[in-house]
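Changelog entry: the Eukaryotic translation initiation factor 2B subunit epsilon record was regenerated in this release. Current contents:
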Amino acid sequence: MAAPVVAPPGVVVSRANKRSGAGPGGSGGGGARGAEEEPPPPLQAVLVADSFDRRFFPISKDQPRVLLPLANVALIDYTLEFLTATGVQETFVFCCWKAAQIKEHLLKSKWCRPTSLNVVRIITSELYRSLGDVLRDVDAKALVRSDFLLVYGDVISNINITRALEEHRLRRKLEKNVSVMTMIFKESSPSHPTRCHEDNVVVAVDSTTNRVLHFQKTQGLRRFAFPLSLFQGSSDGVEVRYDLLDCHISICSPQVAQLFTDNFDYQTRDDFVRGLLVNEEILGNQIHMHVTAKEYGARVSNLHMYSAVCADVIRRWVYPLTPEANFTDSTTQSCTHSRHNIYRGPEVSLGHGSILEENVLLGSGTVIGSNCFITNSVIGPGCHIGEHR
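Regenerated structure tokens:
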């Protein structure tokens, strides 16, 4: 059964070409250089609006994970804002579980307005069971024409991927399209709150080229094993890193979707990475990495990460994605920001003697009774908390 493709009314596909010279890595200058080099094609993204797991059940039984509110904003809105800010001009949103709810949310949002800089196209199917199924559908429909970003709909990030994208394109140009993927990582100590055990990885990388040589999840492992060939085959040195947080943001070449089609045992991105690293000499494909130190990127993959990322948003580590920024242009999500990270929405009532200590977000229309003490909390819109006796 063919999966329907939905675009907002009034959107013309040729719109995206208006900004083709202004995207990441684009050349805005004219003259001789403009005559020699063609501007890069419009940047596209594939957003997977399904986790294909039950980690948030029973919460996500009636509401898809990407619509769960984080600091009173749906997760998918953070992801789309990140993609738009980084220069993406066309995003394909793939939905399976509760697809009708996601579609309704997006069609009512600013992302599907004719004035949106990022054209959002919604693709739904009940047949998707994994990331692999999504990318095989991308290949079958020939949706991507050049390098694209691959993300899940629960990624929260303010990373500017311009430099990583330029490096990726330059590698492919110089090495005849050998590199097919660049994974984005953030430097993070093993004890950092946004590191969760099930997502920890150890990566061996070429010190000079940032080519990934070995990639291994560490959950349940007390020791790591590396092939001896890793250290014998590289003349430039090898770094073994355990100080990285996987942002789950990948810059992919169109070959990635084709490789998923050719290998039906690839169901996740990790399957793909391991498969390519094991068969690198046979397939001739390489994977690289880009590491950021000061920017923010994380995936809300479980309740631990939900709590940690929500706290980071309230504490403004994901600036400019802060509660008072109201990047969704919603009147119900507007709020004011004051000292100690206190955010108050419109029509909030605070009872006599109540104290908001620090890192508190009150949604619109919320009523707090008298003598209450609130700290490090997010309270949704329209909530009522009685007085403390």
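The chain has two domains: 5-314, 340-389.
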